[in-house]
Design a protein that fits this description.
This protein is α/β, with parallel strands linked by helices and 342 residues long. Helix content is 31%, strand content 25%. The strands form three sheets. A seven-stranded mixed beta sheet has the order 6-7-8-3-9-10-15, with helices on both faces. A four-stranded antiparallel beta sheet has the order 2-1-4-5, covered by helices on one side. Strands 12-13-11-14 form a four-stranded antiparallel beta sheet. The relative contact order is 0.12.
Amino acid sequence: MPPKPAPSTPPTSSTTSPPPAIEAKALTKTYGSGTRAVPVLRSIDLHVPPGTVFALLGPNGAGKTTAVRILTTLTTPDTGTARVAGHDIRTGRREVRRAISLTGQFAAVDETQTGAENLRMMARLAGLNRPAAATRAAELLARFGLTEAGDRLVRTYSGGMRRRVDLAAGLVGDPQIIFLDEPTTGLDPRSRQEMWEVVRDLTAQGTTVFLTTQYLEEADQLADHIAVLHEGVIVAEGSPSALKSLVSGHRLDATIKTHHAYIRLTERATHHSPETLTLGFPTDGTAAGVRDLLDELDPDRTDLATFTLRTATLDDVFLTLTNPTPPQQPKDQRPQELTTHV
């Protein structure tokens, strides 16, 4: 009888998920003490897969910058743990810093140097010798479409060009993870579009991007996953489409005839425009749903002047989730890929 064949070992590479690029559990941070204590982060969890764009949204003061400072080892959390590129932010600070790049809200480049000189300087600071630094600078100038402008002083650059040089400088060491803190602040629409293309190119090459932004359209265009931070708490997270479904997928914008009626309906609305007496209300977009909503808002048909139906945006999600009154989630309509904490 021939010997039994050895049992085959199932492959693991195709079934085992790669470790997260960023993972944080129960991070808390409070500034001040006693009666002056200000809680900034209240036990937040984060999970960012490698090679994706993760967007952290929230109003001013929500704790976005504090979260970034903790993950980039610039600030220590009061409690909680986090690993970035596989390294603990407390015990492996040096390893974390070698694996990341941080680009702030404003370009941190030397305007008295050329673009090429800026990049060569950063490469030298990263430990490259002169020939290697020159080669790396030329590579990055080409990658960001700045070769022709490389020998010009940075002070002659447009805002978008400066941002690209700043981002290129952060890539000198070929980081695994890039933190972009409101990278397109102050840029014109064309420069913002150029930066979006740069971010898409980075993730296409396997780089992980952690993005904070005040432009919700930016998160909608770029992010694979979004977390909404409000008063130090993550109130919802999911894909852009999943978050939009939280406000029923559509919004009915109604122009109200009188100020009295506008005030009466304000609490129901997720979008407010007192200048034009216009309010926005979540709806599923169906004919029956719109009719029911109109009858509910204006049963006597005396308060609404006109209405339009539009697709929900992340602005609607943002306003709904950061509204003082928590939004009501329709029963049995919460998508599986969406997590809410309201």
